[in-house]
Structures are given as C-alpha cells and as structure tokens.
Write a structure and sequence with these properties.
The chain is built from six helices and two strands, in the order αβαααβαα. By secondary structure, it is mostly helical.
Length: 174
C-alpha cells in the first residue's frame, strides 16, 4: 500500500515538475515544492509506512519477517536491519530535499505540489488503509495464514513418493 502511494505521488509530481531530466543537465534538477502540504503529508505517511513505523501498515510485515528469520539466520537479520536503516535515511533525505529545499540553486515550483480534488480522493483511501492495517492487521494475516502454514508444515521426503500437493510421479519419469 505504501509503495503504491509513493509511486502515485512521484507520478503526480513528475507530471508537474521536470524531475526526470537525468543526463541532459548532469543530474536531476534541484526543485522545491513549497506549500505542498497535502502532497507532503501523504508522502510522509507513505514513506513512514514503507520503512515500518509502528502503527502503519509496513510495521507488522517487517516485524514478522525479522522475528521469523532471526531463529534460522541471525546474520541475515543484521543485513536486513542495516538495509532498512539505509532505506530510511535515503527516503527521508529525498523528502527533505523535495519539500524543504535544503540545497543549492533551488527552482521553486509554486503550486506544483497541490492535488486536485479527484487526486485527493484517489490518495486518501491509501492513507486510511496504511493506518488501518497498521493498527488492525488481522484481515491481511488471515489471507496469508494458509500459505504460511503450508510453507512451515513438515513435508515427507521425496523418496517416499507421496508429497503433499504434488501429483504422483508416473512410470517412465513423465
């Protein structure tokens, strides 16, 4: 949900501001979106959910992955936590640059970040879902439960020829 919100927001901003002029000017242009309170708020929610802030939709999934992986591969957990930290720093660095303009040679795009009513109606349900599934993740957990139970259940060895969920082997290897 959070990544969908980020994609939609960057698409909406990209329509209004020439952010993707890489190569021609030696990099991305320095652009600030002052007064873009609605866009900034929705993007802050999306970024926070993507990095797993408690109370938002990304927290439960990241917590389950970290807790489940720790018992088998604690070293991978260190790599994952480090990656999450780097992702957080980079996401909010982009946010700071885009909405607060802490850089040199800024081009201000007044009004470029405000959303039309139909765009607000399109994005606000995503924010509501981010908060809802962060506070009450049970509906999503019910959906993934059968798959997780199937993955975690002990399976019979391939030598026995009776694997759950697979058709029996035919003679001649076909």
């Amino acid at each position: 949900i959070s990544i969908a919100g980020l994609g939609l927001l960057f698409g909406l901003i990209g329509e209004r501001v020439p952010l993707l002029r890489f190569g021609r000017d030696g990099g991305a242009p320095r652009v600030t979106l002052p007064g873009a309170s609605v866009v900034g708020t929705v993007m802050a929610f999306s970024l926070a959910a993507a990095v797993g802030v408690p109370g938002l939709s990304g927290f439960v999934g990241q917590s389950l992955v970290m807790m489940g992986g720790y018992s088998k591969h604690p070293a991978v957990l260190v790599v994952m936590a480090s990656s999450l930290l780097l992702m957080t720093v980079s996401f909010f660095g982009v946010y700071r640059e885009l909405f607060f303009g802490f850089g040199e040679e800024r081009v201000e795009q007044e009004g470029a970040g405000e959303l039309l009513i139909r765009q607000r109606l399109f994005l606000f349900p995503l924010v509501i879902l981010m908060v809802f599934f962060g506070l009450y993740p049970r509906p999503l957990l019910k959906v993934i439960r059968p798959t997780v139970e199937q993955l975690l259940s002990p399976k019979e060895s391939p030598a026995s020829g009776d694997l759950k969920g697979l058709p029996p082997a035919t003679e001649g290897g076909q």
